[in-house]
Write a structure and sequence with these properties.
Shape: globular
Mean pLDDT: 96
Distance between the termini: 62 Å
Strand content: 5-15%
Number of strands: 15
Low-confidence stretches: none
Number of helices: 12
Number of domains: 2
Radius of gyration: 21 Å
Structural class: alpha/beta
CATH architecture of the largest domain: 3-Layer(aba) Sandwich
CATH class of the largest domain: Alpha Beta
CATH topology of the largest domain: Aspartate Aminotransferase, domain 2
Length: about 400
C-alpha cells in the first residue's frame, strides 16, 4: 500500500490566508451591500511597467518567427537574463558571476524547492513573526523547526542566540510581516554566526526594492563572509508587479560548500533534473525590469505604494499606535490598540468598518497582539480605509 507523506498531518488545520478568506466570504454573504477594503494579502494592484509590457510583446513576436523562436529554455535561466541580473548586482558593488544567478518562477516556489539541497535531518531556524511558508515547508519535509521570537523591543531584528543553533537559518529583510530591516551590523552578526556553526542562511530579499535607507543592505552579499554561508532568494513580484507573471531569481555562490558538496553545482543538477526552465517570453519581460527605463518605471510604482503607507502611518501616528515598517517595506506591523488580541481586532475591523488586514498571530505566537496592513492597494481604497480607521480608533479610544 502506498504510504503518504504523513508530515502533512502535522500542519495547522487552516492556512492563515485561507482562514481570512473564509471569514471575509461569510461576512460578504451576510452583508452584500457593504464595500470591503482589503489591506490584507500583499498582492499588487498596479499594472506591469510599460517597458516590461513592450518586452513581453517582443517576446511573443519572437515566438511567431522561425528565426527567433525559442522552445525549451536553459533550466538555470536564459544567459541574457542571468547576465543582466549579475550586472545589476555588480553595479551595486556586489561581486557575483553570472553562473551564480539562477532564474526561477518566483520566490515562493524557490523557497520550497531550495530545501532539496538539505538533508531532512537538518534543523531550520525561523525568526518569528515569519512568513508561514517557512515553517510549513519544513514540516512537510519532516524537519525540526526552531523558533526564535523577536519583539518590538529589538525592532523585530534579533541577534543570534547561542542557545538556538540550526543548520538552516531564515532571514527576511525587509521583513514580511513586520516591515523591519536588518542593518549591516545585524546581518554581520548572523553571517559570522552561520559561518562559525556551519549553518546556511536562506536570505529572502523579496522586498529589497522598497529599501530607501542607504545604510540598509539590499543583498546579504554586501556582508563580508556571506558567500560561504548564504543563499539569496529574490522576486520580481513586488519589485515589478510580477505576482501573476511569476519570475524570480536565486543567487548561490560557488564558494558555498558543506561536507565536500558544492551548493551551486547541486542546484544546477537539481534544476536540470526537475525543471524545463522559465518561459522565454517571461524572461524577456524580466530583463526589461533591469533596464534604465524599467528601473525608473518600477520605482514610480513603488513610490505609489509608499504613499499608501504614509496615508496609513499618519493615522497610526495620530493615535500614538506603535508600529514598524512602512518606510523600507510595503507592510505596516502595528500593535493592536487596547491590548486586543489579533483575531479580535481583525473581526472588529471587518464587522465595524469593513477593512481587512492580517492578524499577527498567524505569523507565529509572538505575533499575537499585532496586526499587518499591506500597502499594495489603490490610493482611493487606502484613503477610504484610513478615514474609516481614524473614525474607528477615535471611537475606540473615547470609550
Amino acid at each position: 500500500m502506498t504510504k503518504p507523506n504523513m508530515n502533512y498531518a502535522n500542519l495547522k488545520d487552516s492556512y492563515l490566508f485561507f482562514g481570512i478568506a473564509q471569514r471575509v466570504k461569510k461576512y460578504s454573504e451576510l452583508n452584500p451591500d457593504k464595500k470591503i477594503l482589503r489591506l490584507g494579502i500583499g498582492d499588487v494592484s498596479l499594472p506591469l511597467a510599460k517597458t516590461v509590457i513592450s518586452a513581453l510583446a517582443e517576446g511573443v513576436s519572437d515566438q511567431a518567427e522561425k528565426s527567433s523562436f525559442h522552445g525549451y529554455m536553459p533550466e538555470c535561466g536564459a544567459p541574457f537574463l542571468r547576465k543582466t541580473i549579475g550586472e545589476f548586482y555588480r553595479n551595486r558593488g556586489v561581486k557575483i558571476s553570472d553562473d551564480e544567478v539562477f532564474v526561477s518562477s518566483g520566490a515562493s516556489d524557490e523557497l520550497g524547492d531550495i530545501l532539496d539541497l538539505f538533508d531532512k535531518e537538518n534543523s531550520a531556524l525561523v525568526i518569528e513573526p515569519a512568513y508561514p511558508a517557512y515553517v510549513d515547508a519544513n514540516i512537510i519535509a519532516g524537519r525540526k523547526n526552531i523558533h526564535l521570537a523577536s519583539s518590538i523591543e529589538n525592532g523585530f531584528t534579533p541577534d543570534p542566540d547561542e542557545e538556538k543553533k540550526a543548520d538552516i537559518i531564515y532571514i527576511c529583510s525587509p521583513n514580511n510581516p513586520t516591515g523591519a530591516v536588518f542593518t549591516k551590523e545585524k546581518l554581520k552578526k548572523w553571517v559570522d554566526f552561520a559561518n562559525e556553526n556551519g549553518s546556511v542562511i536562506l536570505f529572502d530579499a523579496a522586498y529589497e526594492a522598497f529599501i530607501e535607507d542607504e545604510n540598509i543592505p539590499h543583498s546579504i552579499f554586501e556582508i563580508d563572509g556571506a558567500s560561504t554561508c548564504a543563499i539569496e532568494i529574490c522576486s520580481l513580484s513586488k519589485t515589478a508587479g510580477f505576482t501573476g507573471t511569476r519570475l524570480g531569481y536565486t543567487v548561490i555562490p560557488k564558494a558555498l560548500e558543506r561536507q565536500g558538496m558544492n551548493f551551486n553545482s547541486m542546484w544546477v543538477r537539481n534544476r536540470t533534473t526537475k525543471t524545463n526552465g522559465v518561459s522565454y517570453i517571461i524572461q524577456k519581460g524580466g530583463a526589461a525590469v533591469f533596464s534604465k527605463q524599467g528601473q525608473k518605471e518600477i520605482k514610480e510604482n513603488i513610490a505609489y505604494y509608499k504613499e499608501n503607507a504614509k496615508i496609513l502611518m499618519r493615522v497610526l501616528d495620530e493615535f500614538n499606535i506603535e508600529y514598524t515598517g512602512g518606510v523600507n517595506a510595503p507592510y505596516i506591523w502595528l500593535k493592536c490598540p487596547k491590548n486586543l488580541d489579533s483575531w479580535a481586532f481583525f473581526d472588529m475591523l471587518l464587522n465595524e468598518i469593513q477593512v481587512v488586514g492580517t492578524p499577527g498571530e498567524g505569523f507565529g505566537s509572538c505575533g499575537e497582539g499585532f496586526f499587518r496592513f499591506s500597502t499594495f492597494g489603490s490610493h482611493e481604497d487606502t484613503i477610504e480605509a484610513a478615514i474609516r480607521l481614524k473614525s474607528f480608533l477615535k471611537h475606540l479610544f473615547n470609550k
